[in-house]
Write a structure and sequence with these properties.
The chain is an all-alpha fold. It is 74% helix and 0% strand. The chain has four helices and no strands. It is elongated, with a radius of gyration of 39 Å.
């Protein structure tokens, strides 16, 4: 048999349980948020310090290399390296491009007999 007082006690107990469950859920969320918060002022300072260190290292490397070459200077240096390479190959008795395997060249020549694309089949 149920009474009004019994029903009211059950309802109050249920409200307290729901309230306690909600408080527990909110406390867990708060703890999770506190763990995930990043202290930005510290992280920004550390990031700036790391960046500045990297920039200073890069500047030091650039200073060791010397002044920046112009495109013309780089082209001339590459040309000189190429000429040296050709002279080395000529000294070995090889012409330019002869370092390739002759069978690979024959294979490429034979593949030219095939159509260039699938649409010509």
């Amino acid at each position: 048999m149920t009474t009004d007082v019994g029903e009211r006690i059950k309802a109050e107990a249920q409200e307290r349980l729901e309230l306690a469950a909600e408080i527990g859920r909110l406390q867990r969320e708060i703890e999770q948020v506190h763990r995930s918060i990043i202290e930005l002022s510290t992280d920004i300072r550390a990031a700036l310090a790391a960046r500045n260190t990297g920039l200073s290292q890069w500047a030091a490397m650039r200073a060791e290399v010397g002044p920046q070459q112009t495109n013309e200077q780089m082209r001339e240096a590459a040309r000189e390296q190429w000429l040296e390479y050709r002279e080395q190959q000529a000294g070995k008795g090889m012409g330019v491009g002869q370092e390739e395997d002759t069978e690979a060249i024959r294979g490429r020549q034979q593949s030219h007999d095939l159509p260039d694309d699938d649409f010509s089949l």
